[in-house]
Write a structure and sequence with these properties.
By secondary structure, this protein is α+β, with helices and mostly antiparallel strands. It folds into 2 domains: about 100 residues, no CATH class; about 120 residues, Aminopeptidase, CATH 3.40.630.30. Helix content is about 25%, strand content about 30%. It contains 6 helices and 12 strands. The strands form 3 sheets. Strands 3, 4, 5, 6, 7, 11 and 12 form a 7-stranded mixed sheet that branches. A 3-stranded antiparallel sheet has the order 8-9-10, with helices on both faces. Strand 4 and strand 5 form a beta hairpin.
Length: about 220
C-alpha cells in the first residue's frame, strides 16, 4: 500500500488497473510482479498481456520458486492451488473489462432506480461476499450492482430478469444505463466469465474493453508453529 498527496491509501494493484484502463500496461516481458495481499483476506492472480501480477501474503521468494510466468503460468491450476493452500477457495477465471462512466446532470432524473427488494438475490449476495459499499439498482430488465471491488476498483455487474430475452438487446441497454450511474470519465470494471459468451458480447457491445484476466482466491493455509 502507499498514499497519494492527499494521504489517501491506494492499493498498488488499483494503480495498475487504472493505468491499464488508460492503455498503459505492464511490460510484456513474461515476468511476474508480486504485491501484498488484499483487504478482507483475499488474494488474486491477474494476467495482462505477457505480464502477471499476484497479490498474496506469501513471501515473494516463495511465490517465485513455483516458477509462474506472464504467459499464462500464473493462472495454471497447480499454481493457483499453491496460492490458495490445501483448503483455500479458488474463484472462477474471469475476463477483466473496463468502460467509463457517463453520468451528467441531465441524466440524474432518468437514472436507474435503487432496488431495496433484492438483498436476497444471488447476484447481490455474491457482490457482498467479495465487495464493499454495494449499491443495487435496476428495473424490469434486471439488476445492477455497483461496488468497490478488487483492490478498491469500481465494479459493475448485472443480472437480467429474463435471460432468454438477452438477444433483444436488454443486456447492453441495461449496461449503458448502469454506466450513467457513474461520474463521466471514471473507470468502471467488470469481471465476466469467458464461457458466458452472451454476457461477454453484451459488455463488449456496451463499450467495455478487455484488459486481461484474473482469479480471486480466499486462501486457507496451515498456521505457522
Amino acid at each position: 500500500m502507499f498514499s497519494n498527496l492527499d494521504g489517501v491509501t491506494i492499493d498498488p494493484l488499483l494503480t495498475l488497473f487504472h493505468r491499464a484502463a488508460d492503455g498503459r500496461f505492464p511490460p510484456a516481458d513474461g515476468r511476474v510482479t508480486v504485491l501484498p495481499s488484499l483487504p478482507g483476506g483475499l488474494e488474486c492472480s491477474v494476467a495482462f498481456t505477457g505480464h502477471a501480477v499476484i497479490s498474496t501474503a506469501l513471501p515473494e521468494e516463495e511465490v517465485l520458486t513455483q516458477r509462474p510466468d506472464g504467459y499464462g503460468g500464473s493462472l495454471a491450476p497447480d499454481f493457483l492451488r499453491f496460492l490458495a493452500g490445501p483448503a483455500g477457495r479458488i474463484g472462477t477465471l474471469d475476463a477483466v473489462l473496463v468502460a467509463r462512466g457517463t453520468s451528467n446532470a441531465a441524466d440524474a432524473a432518468r437514472q436507474l432506480p435503487v432496488r431495496l427488494d433484492a438483498e436476497d438475490h444471488q447476484r447481490v449476495r455474491h457482490a457482498r461476499d467479495l465487495r464493499t459499499d454495494v449499491r443495487v439498482h435496476g428495473d424490469a430488465r434486471g439488476l445492477v450492482t455497483l461496488a468497490n471491488g478488487l483492490a478498491g476498483r469500481r465494479e459493475l455487474s448485472i443480472e437480467l430478469a429474463d435471460p432468454a430475452n438477452a438477444s433483444r438487446g436488454r443486456g447492453r441497454s441495461l449496461l449503458r444505463d448502469a454506466l450513467a450511474l457513474v461520474p463521466a470519465g471514471e473507470p468502471v470494471f467488470a469481471a465476466v466469465s469467458p464461457g458466458n459468451a452472451r454476457s461477454l458480447r453484451a459488455f463488449l457491445a456496451a463499450g467495455f474493453t478487455p484488459l486481461g484476466s484474473e482469479v480471486i482466491l480466499r486462501p486457507q493455509r496451515p498456521s505457522s508453529p
